[in-house]
Amino acid sequence: MPVLVASDLDRTLIYSSAALALTMPDARAPRLLCVEVHESRPLSYMTETAAQLLTELGDAAVFVPTTTRTRKQYQRINLPGPQPAFAICANGGHLLVDGVTDTDWHARVLTRLADECAPLGEVQEQLTRTADPVWLRKQRVAEDLFAYLVVERELLPPDWVKEFAAWAENRGWTVSLQGRKLYAVPKPLTKSAAVHEVARRTGAELTLAAGDSLLDADLLLAADRGWRPGHGELAETEWQAPRISALPERGVLAGERILREFLRGARQQCP
């Protein structure tokens, strides 16, 4: 039976230049491979060693990129290794099969959102009414499913985040602050639901997962084994759960360690 490996991407497997956390002397820094270009500029990286590990993982397991990115944002990433047969975008709102959206899955997601949480428009209105231009840089809607803000983190009042999170919680939404982005995501919109669907289709009997943010918590809890890096929202809150390993590595070297753990777990299951 195949092993399914579902991994968050940003700040888990791939890293912007600001998130690399290269604390070693320059002469000892790892060689990096650019895996994303945006507007003709390099944007995201992994180590060359991580790229080799991911290539090996693609042959040892069903690797499923599992991201909050929109489909357009995901499709500009050029990961090494075999092209994934499945990918999860928009925090579970879209399931891509050979690069194409599964419309039946998306319809099921929309039905759940309509039944179980406040509409996106209500959340947008609250954000527009309460966000302060002093710290707000952009307000965006992703795939007509959830909203996010780009903020000046050092100017963002913690009290505003807490108050908005409490308001959203009462309406069936989750708030997650990741770097300069603050996400408002419907609770029924989860990575884990989409991963369960992929596991059902592939017949996988073991699921491995990794992620760094609050939006990855459900994914980690749904896996048989999971890993979180030493940075990010989950590390900052010291989030722990059974079968979840908290790694000490931070930045791009954490991505390399996570891939080593994935590969070891897949090979132990399928020698």
UniProtKB/TrEMBL annotation:
Keywords: Hydrolase. Transmembrane segments: none annotated. InterPro entries: HAD-like_sf, HAD_sf, TPP-like. GO terms for molecular function: hydrolase activity. This is HAD family hydrolase. It comes from Streptomyces griseofuscus.
